[in-house]
Amino acid sequence: MSQQTKFLLDESQMPRHWYNLQADLPKPLPAVLHPGTLQPVGPDDLAPLFPMELILQEVSQEREIEIPEPVRDVFRLWRPAPLYRAHRLEKALGTPARIYYKYEGVSPAGSHKPNTAVPQAFYNKQAGVKRLVTETGAGQWGTSLSFAGSLFGLEVEVFQVRVSYDQKPYRRAVMETYGARCVASPSNETAFGRSVLAQNPNHPGSLGIAISEAVELAVQRDDTKYALGSVLNHVLLHQTVIGQEAMTQMTMADAWPHVVIGCAGGGSNFAGIAFPFIGHGLRGGEKSRVVAVEPAACPSLTRGKYAYDFGDTAGMTPLTKMHTLGSQFTPPGFHAGGLRYHGMAALVSHCKELGLIEAVAYNQVECFEAGVLFARNEGIVPAPEANHAVKGAIEEALRCKREGKTENILFCLSGHGHFDMAAYQKYFAGELSDESYDERELAQALAGLPSVPETV
Amino acid sequence: MSQQTKFLLDESQMPRHWYNLQADLPKPLPAVLHPGTLQPVGPDDLAPLFPMELILQEVSQEREIEIPEPVRDVFRLWRPAPLYRAHRLEKALGTPARIYYKYEGVSPAGSHKPNTAVPQAFYNKQAGVKRLVTETGAGQWGTSLSFAGSLFGLEVEVFQVRVSYDQKPYRRAVMETYGARCVASPSNETAFGRSVLAQNPNHPGSLGIAISEAVELAVQRDDTKYALGSVLNHVLLHQTVIGQEAMTQMTMADAWPHVVIGCAGGGSNFAGIAFPFIGHGLRGGEKSRVVAVEPAACPSLTRGKYAYDFGDTAGMTPLTKMHTLGSQFTPPGFHAGGLRYHGMAALVSHCKELGLIEAVAYNQVECFEAGVLFARNEGIVPAPEANHAVKGAIEEALRCKREGKTENILFCLSGHGHFDMAAYQKYFAGELSDESYDERELAQALAGLPSVPETV
User: φ and ψ at A65, to 5 degrees?
Assistant: First the structure.
C-alpha cells in the first residue's frame, strides 16, 4: 500500500466526458410532472428556464456526454483536483482504515460548485443568453455562478436569502468582485417577493422563496435564463468529474474504496463523488458502499417522504419525485447553509429507493468537532457542509477500528471554510447548539404535499 | 509560444534545496549589530530566540541548503504550486506582453506564509521546543504558524495587533481552529504591553509592538522560542521554493521572464519569487528586471532611509541595515495589512543598494482596481497585498503595449482574498481612500533612527 500523501493527475487525465448514471440504472427515474396538468414535462416546458443543451442533458440516457473544450479550458484553472490520504487523521483516530479525501476547495470559489457553474454559463452563452439569474443561500453557488459568468461575459443576478445577505456581507462582496448584482430575497423586484413582504416586511427569506423569485424573473425576460446549483440531473451530471478523477486516483493509490462518502444537501457534491462508483458497480465492477451524510436538522433522506413535490416555495417549478420534508418546511438556522434545503435530488432519492446508497444524519456540533479534528491533523479547515462528510468518514474509520478492518474510506471534502469562520467562532465560544426542527411543523409540511395520483 | 494556461510540476520536481542568494552576492550583507554593544551579533546572541539550525541558516553562505524530508512531506499538501498564463487578462489589456503568475494561494492558509512556517515549526520541534510565540497583523502569518504548529505538535501563541483582533474575528477563529492561542496586543501579559497600555489603555496596537511582546515572552521562557514570518534571511531563504518552481515552469512555458514582480512588505514573498532569478543572472545566466511593488502609504524601499534600525518598537531586536521608515513610524490603516511594516528585509534592501532590483509604490485604490480586473478575468480574487503585484504586472503590460514589445512578465500572486472581503466591500462602497502618512511624522521617525558609527 502506498505511503504517498497526495495523488495528482496530469491535465491529460482530466475527464473528457461527464458520466450519466441514468444510463446504468436498473429502473428509470420517475417522470417530472407539470404542476398544472400533472403530465410529464417535455423539453419545451423547460425552455423558458434553461438553454436546450442543458435540457437535453437533463433527460439524456447516454452514458457519456462530452465536456466542451472551452469548459475544460476553464476547469484547467484548478482541475484535476487533488486526492489526499489522511495519514495524520488515521493516526489520531488509531484506525486501521485508510482514509482518502478528494479536495474540491482548490477551485477559485473554494468549493465544488464551479464544476457546474462553468458549463451552465458556457451553454447559456452559446445559446445567446445575456443574463443568468439564480438564488443563493450560504453564497457558495452565487459566488460560483458569478465567477463563471465573469469568464464567459454573462450578467449574473443573484437573489440572496435575506438573512445571509445581512449576516454574510463578505459573500456578497465576492459576488460583486466578480461583477454580479446581489438582491436580498424576498425583494420588491418580483411579484412573489412583494407578496411575501406584504405579509411580513421583515421576512428572513429562504432558499425556496429565492428560487421562486429567480424563476419568476427568468420566465419574464427573453434574454434571461435561470441557473440552479444542485438538485437537477444536469447539475449532478456536471459534478461527476469529481468521482471520475477520484476513481483514477484511488486506482493510483491501489486502494479501491470500500466506502464512498459525501455530504448531501441538494445532492450535487454527493452525486459527483458517488455516481461514477455506483455506475461502476452496476456495470459489474467492484461495488462500494455509498453513504450520504445529511444534517439532523434538515434530514430529507432519513426523515423525509419519497413523494412528488415542488422545488420552490411558490410552487412555480415542476413536480419532482424526491425525498422531501415538504416545500413549506423551514429548517432551523444551522450553519451548513448549503444543506438547508427541503428536498433531495431526484436521482439521489431514486438511488436511495433502489438500495444503491445509505443515508445517515448528524448534528451540527458533532460535525464541527469532526471538522476541527480534521483541520488540526490535515491542515485544511473544511466548510461546515463538508464537516458532515468528515464526520461520516470518521465514524466509518472508528467502526473499522472496532471491527479490526483495514478498509479504504473515500470522502469528498467539497470546500474550505475560509468564508465560514463566523460559524467556527461560535463553535469555539460554545454558542452552537443542535437546534432541531419542530416535529409538528414537519408533519404539517408533509401533510401539505401536492396530491399526485399513484398511477403517475 | 505555448497557448497552455496552467503549468504544473510533478512532485518529483518540488525543490529539494532552498536557494541562498548570499552565496552569489557581489558584496556581503552588512553585519547585524547588538543594540547595546553595536558589535556584530553572533549565533549565541540569537539562541534565546531561535533554534540553532535556523540561526545557521540566517548566516549561511552556502548556495543550497537541503529541505528536510518531513518539511517536504507537509509541502506536498499543496506544493508544487501552479503557475498560470493570464490569457484573459492579456486580452482585456490588449497587450502584446505575456503575463504569467505563480499562485501561492493554494496552501491551506491561503498564502505563501506556510512555506516558512512549516520549516520553522519543524526545526523548533527538532530542537525540543514546546511553544512558539509570534505576532500577526492581518493574520496570514499567525494562521500559517498555527497550521504548521498543529502538524508538528507545538503550542502556538499569537500576539495579534489589537485593531485586527477586534476587526477580524474570523482570522482569530482560523488560528483557534488550528489550536493556537490568540492574545490582543498590546496585552497585559508582557512588561512592554503593560507599559504601552499604561500610556493608552485603548492603544490600537502595531506590528512593532506585537513583535516586542512576542520577543519578550520567548526570551523569558526556556521551552519557548520566537518565530518571525518575514524580514529575516532564513525566512526569505525558505520562500525561494516559489522562484525555483517558477524557473522550471517558465522554462516549460518557453517564456523566460523579462520582468519578475512581487509585492513587498517585509520582503518574503518578493524574495521568494525574485532571488532565484537574481542569482541566475548573477551567475551569468539570462538577466531579468526585478520589480518590488510596495504601498504608497508605507513605502520603505522608495521613501525610507537605508540605515541601521530596530525590527520592533521597543528596541529589543538586533539592529539591521535596511530601508526603513523608522521603527517609531506608524503607517496609516490601509487594507494590505501584510505590507504595513516600517522596515524592509536586509537582503532585499541590500539588493536595492546593489542595483539588482527596482522599486515602485502604488496607492491602495488603484491596487484594488487592478485586483478586481484580475478577478473578473482570471477568476481568482487576490489578497489586498497581492493586488500590489497585480497592479505592478498590469503597468508593465501596458508599458509593453505602448512600446509594442512582446515581453514575458512574471508575478507572484501570493495569496487569495477570501479573508479580506471586508476590504473589497469598502472598495465597492466607495469607502476606500488613498490616505497617506504624515510627512512630518515620517521625518520625525527618520530623525529618531538609532545612531550607529559609519565605521561599522
Answer: -125, 125
Site of grid cell 512581487: B262
CB contact B381 to A (< 8 Å): yes
Cα separation, A41 vs A64, whole angstroms: 23
Listed residue (A173, A140, A148, A122) closest to B379, CA to CA = A148
H/E stretch holding A308 reads strand A305-310
Residues 94-123 of B with CB under 8 A from A: 106, 108, 110
Q: Which chain B residues contact residue A155 at CB under 8 A? A: none
**Mean pLDDT, chain A, integer:** 94
- Over residues A41-86, the pLDDT tens digits come to 999 999 999 999 999 999 999 999 999 999 999 999 999 999 999 9
Are residues B150 and A376, on separate chains, in Cβ contact within 8 Å?
Answer: yes
Give the closest-approach CA distance of B367 to chain A in angstroms: 14
pTM of the model: 0.94
Option in A5, A8, A77 nearest B6 (CB): A77
Which chain A residues in 354-373 lie under 8 Å from chain B, judged by CB atoms?
372
Q: What angle do CA A247, A252, A253 make, to 5 degrees?
A: 95
Q: Which amino acid is at B210?
A: A
User: Are B35 and B312 within 8 A, CB to CB?
Assistant: no
Closest CA to B8 of B92, B91, B82, B104: B82
On whether any CB of chain B is under 8 Å from the CB of A6, the answer is: yes
Beta pairing, strands A224-226 & A259-263 = unpaired
Q: Which of B421, B427, B428 to mutate to test the interface with A (most CBs of A within 10 A)?
A: B421
* Backbone torsion region of residue A205, taken as left when φ is above 0, otherwise alpha when ψ lies between -120 and 50, otherwise beta: left
Least trusted range by pLDDT, from A299-313, A401-415, B159-173: B159-173
Asked whether A397 and A418 are in contact (CB, 8 A), the reply is no
Residue A139, Ramachandran bin (φ over 0: left; ψ between -120 and 50: alpha; else beta): left
| Nearest-CA distance A370 → chain B (Å) | 11
Q: Is the ipTM of this complex over 0.85?
A: yes
Please give the backbone phi and psi of residue B130, each rounded to the nearest 5 degrees, phi first. -100, -30
* A73 in B contact zone (CB under 8 Å): yes
Q: Which of A77, A178, A418 is opposite residue B419, by nearest beta carbon? A: A418
Provide the shortest C-alpha distance from residue A376 to chain B (in Å): 5
Which ranges in B253-343 belong to alpha helices (H)? Answer: 268-282, 300-303
The correct answer on CATH 3.40.50.1100 for the domain covering B6-14+65-110+234-447 is yes
CB A125 within 8 A of CB A145: no
Question: Vertex A51, ends A244 and A325: CA angle to 5°?
Answer: 70
For residue B37, give the DSSP letter: T
- Dihedral of CA A120/A124/A125/A127: which sign? positive
Please state, in angstroms and rounded to a whole number, the distance separating the CA atoms of residues B182 and B284. 47
- The reported pLDDT for the residue numbered A305 is 96
**B236 CB contacts (<8 Å, ≥6 apart)?**
B21, B230, B267, B268, B271, B272, B275, B345, B347, B348
pLDDT band at B49 (very low <50, low <70, confident <90, very high): very high
* Nearest Cα residue to A288 out of A272, A274, A268: A274
* C-alpha cell at position B26: 557581489
Distance, in angstroms, between B369 CA and closest chain A CA?
10
Q: Are the beta carbons of A169 and B88 separated by less than 8 Å?
A: no
Closest to A269 (Cα-Cα) out of A143, A101, A421, A128:
A101
User: Domain ranges in chain B?
Assistant: 6-14+65-110+234-447
DSSP state, residue B181: E
Shortest Cα–Cα distance, A379 to chain B (Å): 6
Whole-number average pLDDT of chain B:
94
